Amino acid sequence: MNHVHLPLHDHEERYGMFRASGRSVGLRLVFGAIWTLLPFILLFEILRLEWYGVVLLVIIGLSGLRYLLAVRASWYGSVLVVTNERVIDVTKIGFSKPVVTSVWWNEVKEVRRVGKSIMIETSTKVPMILVLANVKKPTLVMNLISEVQSKHSNR
User: Fold this and answer.
1) Pick from 52, 44, 53, 96: which is nearest to 74 by CA?
2) Quick one: which of 23, 30, 33, 26 has its CA closest to 65?
3) Are 94 and 114 in contact (CB under 8 A)?
4) Do the beta carbons of residue 6 and residue 88 sit within 8 Å?
5) Among residues 110, 107, 154, which one has the least CA distance to residue 131?
6) Whole-prediction pTM value?
7) Domain-by-domain residue ranges, the chain?
């Protein structure tokens, strides 16, 4: 989890770093594996096309591998971080640069759990909702966020 670059301040402590469960991307990973391995399963049929078949095999195999790596990068790079000063949402789509959104604790309006998702509603100038969908341990995440939020509301 330490491979995600976080823009933390000098005296900011990280309490928790959460990402979606691996099951949430499981179907896309299975699809990517089938896409990558399909040319090798049909190897003899594809090789009947001579050099066209080899080119087709390489293109389909590499595009499937690229898809698998993009799904993994997207899942691994998207996290919700709880610190002593704010909540940081890092969203990454494929190989693109991650989008970092942070909300100070005094701007958090409501935290609620919907199924396996955690929703954090803000009261900023432009209201927004940070969502961490399909959390592995939603009760743990919800308890941590509620505990830190209650500490900051008592100040």
Assistant:
1) 96
2) 33
3) no
4) yes
5) 110
6) 0.77
7) 14-20+78-153, 26-74
Domain at 14-20+78-153, CATH class: mainly beta
Which residue has tokens 């990454």? 92
- Secondary element (H or E) of residue 82: strand 79-83
Each of the 155 residues of the chain gets a pLDDT tens digit; together they read 456 667 787 888 888 888 888 888 899 999 999 999 998 888 888 888 888 989 999 999 999 999 999 999 888 888 888 888 888 888 888 888 888 888 888 888 888 888 888 888 888 777 888 888 888 888 888 888 888 888 877 66
Dig out the tokens for 103 from the structure. 């909300």
